[in-house]
Amino acid sequence: MKRIYIISTLIVIIGISAGISFFIIRDVTAKIPENITLVTSNEEVYDFASSEKKLKLVEFIYTHCPDICPTTTQRMNMLKSDLEQEGVYGEKIQFLTVTIDPYRDTTDVLRKYMNTFDIENDGNWILLTADPNNLKQDQYEIGELANTFQFQYRDPGDGFYVHSTFVYLLDENNKFIKKYPMGEDFNKNDVFKKIMKEI
H or E element: which one contains 50? Predict the structure, then answer.
C-alpha cells in the first residue's frame, strides 16, 4: 500500500512539473506572428513584420476601462520619463498600446486617450486599433496578437471587459522576454532594470 502512495505521489509531481515546464516554454518561445497589421492612432498602417528593431513594451487596454488600464498607462508614462533620462526611450525601446475594443476605440478616441495621459505623438509610443474598413479581420488579428502571449479578454455584455492583467516586454524581433503585472502592481523600477539589462 505504501508503495502505491509513493508511486501516486511521484506521478502527481511529474505531472505538475511537466505542466509548469509547458507554460514556461510556451512563454519563452512566444513571438508575434508576422501577418498582423493594425492601424495607429494617426491612421497609418502598422506592420509587425516590418516594425523597428527595438525592444517593445506592449500593453493591452480599452479606453472605457475604469481602473487597471488607465493605471497601467500612467505607470508606463512614469517609466517613460526614467528611460528618457537614460537616453534610450525611442532609440532603443518603444511602447505599444493595443486596444481590445476596436469598435469603440477608434483612432480619434485613441488620440484623445493619448492627450489625457500626455503621451507625445512622436512615434515612440504607438497606439493601435483596427482599420474601420477592415474591422472584422483586424479584430481577429488583435485576438491573435493577444493569444500569442496568452492575454485573454471578453466582453460579458456590459462593455466592461474582463481581461488578463499583464504587460509584455519583447525583444527586437518581437519575441517574448518577460511579463509584468498591470495596474497598481506594475513596478516601473523592475521593468526599468530589465529594459536596461536587455539594451
Answer: none
> What Rg value do the Cα atoms of the chain yield, rounded?
19
> CB 15: neighbour CB atoms within 10 A?
10
Number of H-type helices and E-type strands within the chain: 5, 9
Q: Residues 188-192: what's their mean pLDDT? A: 97
Listed in sequence order, the residues at least 6 apart from 136 whose beta carbon sits closer than 8 Å to its beta carbon are none
User: What is the overall mean pLDDT for the chain?
Assistant: 89
Dig out the grid coordinates for 125 from the structure. Answer: 509610443
Distance CA 60, CA 127 (A): 10
User: What's the confidence (pLDDT) of residue 56?
Assistant: 98
CA-CA distances (angstroms) from residue 13 to 5, 64, 132? 12, 43, 50
Contact 40, 113 (CB under 8 A): no
**Could you tell me the pTM of the whole model?**
0.84
Question: 37-73 in b/e burial notation, b at 16+ Cβ within 10 A?
Answer: bbbbbeeeebebeebeebbbbbbbbbbebeebbbbbb
Decide the pairing of beta strands 55-61 and 166-170: antiparallel
Residue-wise DSSP of 161-188: -EE--EEEEE-TTSBEEEEEE-GGG--H
